[in-house]
Amino acid sequence: MNKKEPFCRANSICPTPQSILLNFVRTNDIRNLKRLVSTNPTLLNYVYKTDLNKPILLIACTETGIKPDTVEALIDLGADLNYASPYDEDWEAIHFAASYTNSHILKVLLNKSPFKVNSLAKGNNALHILVKHGNHDLDEFLKCAELLVNSGIDVNQGDEKNVSAIFWAAKKDYADFIKLLLDDNLLNVDLDSHKLRGKNARSLIEEKSLYTGTLPPEFNTNNYDYGRILFAYLKSNNETAFINFKNGEIIQMSNLDDSYNTLLQLSCEKGLNEAVQHLLNKGADPNLRTEKNSKYPIEIASEQGFYEIVQQLLDHPQITLPKKLIIYLLKNIDNEKFPHKDHERCYEILLSKLNVNNNLADVNFADEYGNTALHYSVRYAEAEKTQELLKLNASLASKNIYNTMPIESIEPELLEKHLNDCIEFNTKSKTIEKEDFPVTFNYRSIIPPIPKKDVCVADYDPELKYKAFSEELVKETEVVFYMSHAPEFRHLLKHPVIVSFLFMKWHRIRWLFFVNLLFYIMFFTSLLLYIIYSFANFNEEENTPFLNFVVYLSHLIFAITFFILVLRELFQIIVSPKKYLMSFENYIEIVLIFITGCILCSPNADTDYRKQLSSTAILLSAFELVLMVGQHPKLSTNVVMLKTVSFNFFKFLLWYSLLIIAFAFSFFILFTNPTSEQPKNSTDTEDEDMFTGPGKSLFKTIIMLTGEFDAGSINFQHFPILSKFIFALFIFMIAIILLNLLNGLAVSDTQIIKNDAELVGHIARAQHIHYVESMLLGNIFPEKFVNFLQNCCCCIPNCELIVARPLAKRSCLFPHYLPYEMTVYPNKQGEVVMPKTVRNRRFLFSSCASCHKIYLDKETVRRTNSIIQEKRDKLKVKKECNQLDKRIEFLLKIQQENKEKLDLIIENFLSDKYV
Question: Residue limits of the Ion transport domain (predicted)?
């Protein structure tokens, strides 16, 4: 049943087709109803919201004033008679009609689908619902009962409490209903089998004198349906009778159902441990479900917390786990514990099974909110349970619908423990000191989960095949990027697992850095040559042929590289506009593109215009080149130092700029010559006097910050005391205190960065790699634009287009380059063992075997060895503790034996003494 709205009329004054259909049904306008549904047949399946929560057929069965012909028309048009409302105990149309005591509509339903008369909703058939919820005061009550009886409804069906309809009728004193059933000699009504609190229908009828005739004899169970007997035993919690039924030989009946539950589902719901074991031993399918109850038996048992049943089901070799099972147990892990009911035990049993067979369930499955089991574990469960999930390769990079990752809620100490566990080696190996001792770095938990694909389908569908390829290429640096921004996680960037991951990522994309750097050097060189020899060449002498060739070549290369630069920036803006606009370097590139575009398009501009453009372009392009070279890991610390010092310097300078501006205006007022006393040669005075205007005064004050005071040219004559005092105050406050403060701040920042140069380098590398990765793996077409096109035309294919498959593939480590892990020989100077396929590809471009080898840095190898030794020491201590525990246990056992012997000796001694 599709519950999504098939039509959308947002911000429209016209009524929706759904509301029009509802109005036609309520007014019994069958003609227009048929016309509307014939053009929009999906309207019949639409589930109305608000207080209705039903499709149109169920609404027609519940509202007054709707004629049977209208209901019949809906059924003829294709309304689903089998739809069970999840908001109303899984009731179907026949149950709603019985509940509202509408015999006319009930008759239509029975005529259209006579075999639905015994349909169950949570164990109740229509006769149960009529007695429990129908209006007995209406004349139609008996008519409904008669219709159901004549249609062959099972009058002996037990509900969820294994109680029949006649029992409830006796409970409510419905004598006329009882008379209707008992007067029909063909029904063979069971008055004895269904009991509640020790009473059956016979005892109630006799006690209340509800029937004047002769009650039928005791029900003969020999002719009773075996399946009904088994369900009756389970509903009454009679496990002994259930297991002993037919001497336990129920192999042919182990998968029976009552149209709502299978025997195993009902046993799990009731918590009948022995019944579950009996059914499994007799061949019951542990994954069998019914159409109305789609929950797996293990899911039902887990919801109730029956851990013993969960254990039995997990031990079955054919068990299939529901995807949401781990999430459900984690969300309810703190529920109150009862005998035989413990959600935490259920979770522990499930985790122990997953440790043996990790493929049994997907630990990275996300619910409707995008939350995985790890999201709930870091919020609700203890640290040990989170660590267990991480060992099962639960991803720290899974994002929910709010773009929140589990790593944002995890404790740094727990993450460090897990990263240590990601360094895997054979703890029992005796070759730890040898060169061929391997260590494996497991990266599965720090990369986003990759959805499992249907290979068979993808092979035949090109669009699905491309989509499957795209899903394999995920943004692998999400976790590391977050760690680089979170102060509490930054120190973990020096962990060998993270360092090796960043090292291999850089090794994977460094070709792109060098290509980009080479391209920009060509752009910078051609721009510089073009400006020097052509655009800003103001020498009127004739150029030599060589210079003309240089000018022509530089102009050509400059034009080509400028065009490529524009395309590169446009591509970055389209793929990820938010990331692009958040980077200060990109604003430099935008201004540079604008200025170089003006240089390229206006070669014959006036001299002053060309000079300004040329000087600005050279400065900006040089700045950009410095920043680009600083993206290399070995030089990143220097650029970070420049950025940090510059940012902090300007931040503090901006704060104190109020004082500088105030001094500038004070100097303008005090040091400006009065108009009446202007010297004759005003031009010379303006050259000497820098305080003749506010702008000049501010500029001169800023120059004075460098120590260039030129006090001899300052006019102190008009206000000799005040002007000298303010000037001295400027020297003391600004030139001495403020500048020394800023210099000290710069020195402090520089020293901090130098002291932690390694960490600063890792942070810069992580952020740069993440930026490059987001660009290469981004979609050219914005998601909202694609959705708009697909809503307008269903023929438009999936437009999620990654830039270029080869580029995207070459930027990712997994799964085409490394199999989610990497093996290293720490005793071979950190040599990385590459997969065979990668080695073969690299041999094509290298002439010797040593050319393709990759080595981790010495510090990473040292930290790896330190962690290995620490883990070995812990195992050694643990082993010694276990041995000590065994010795203590052995001594306690000997002590107990000696005590027993001593007691025996004392007892014998005392007995001999008294004898």
Answer: 514-756
Beta bridge partners of 833: 823
Angle between helices 307-314 and 297-304 (to 10 degrees): 150
Report in angstroms the alpha-carbon separations of 429 from 425, 436, 438, 868: 8, 11, 10, 12
For the ranges 163-177, 178-192, 464-478, 888-902, the lowest mean pLDDT is seen at 464-478
The pair of structure tokens assigned to 631 is 């993206």
CB atoms within 10 A of CB 31: 9
Task: Scan for tokens 């999504």, then name that residue.
Answer: 4
303 and 381 in a single domain? The answer is yes
Contact assessment for residue 442 and residue 821, using Cβ atoms and an 8 Å cutoff? yes
Residue 467 resides in a domain: no
Q: Model pTM?
A: 0.74
Residue 49 belongs to domain with CATH number: 1.25.40.20
Is the residue at 248 inside a domain? yes
In a domain, 765, yes or no: no
32 and 128 fall within a common domain: yes
Q: Is 656 in the same domain as 710?
A: yes
- Based on the domain organization, do 165 and 42 belong to the same domain? yes
**Per-residue pLDDT tens digits for 165-218:** 999 999 999 999 988 888 876 677 888 888 888 888 889 988 888 888 888 887
Q: Which pairing describes strands 439-442 and 831-833: parallel, antiparallel, or unpaired? A: unpaired
Task: State the residue range of the domain holding 199.
Answer: 17-222
- Verify that 76 and 182 share a domain, yes or no: yes
Measure CA 579 to chain center.
Answer: 21
Contact (CB, 8 A) for 61 and 105: yes
Length of the chain: 915
> Closest Cα partner for 351 from 303, 310, 319?
310
Strand partners for 124: 121
Q: Is residue 634 part of a domain?
A: no
Query: Contact 168/132 with Cβ under 8 angstroms?
Result: yes
Q: How many domains does the chain have?
A: 4
Q: Cβ neighbours of residue 309 under 8 Å, at least 6 residues apart? A: 267, 268, 271, 273, 276, 298, 301
Q: Tell me the per-residue pLDDT of 523-555, one tens digit each, with 9 for 90 and over.
A: 999 999 888 887 766 555 556 787 788 888 988
Q: Which helix (H) or strand (E) holds 870?
A: helix 858-914
| Claim to verify: residue 618 and residue 672 sit in the same structural domain | no
Which of the four pLDDT bands, split at 50, 70 and 90, describes residue 249? confident
Contacts of 730 (CB under 8 A, 6+ apart): 663, 667, 701, 704
Residues 525 and 574 in one domain: yes
Residue 308 sits in the same domain as residue 396:
yes
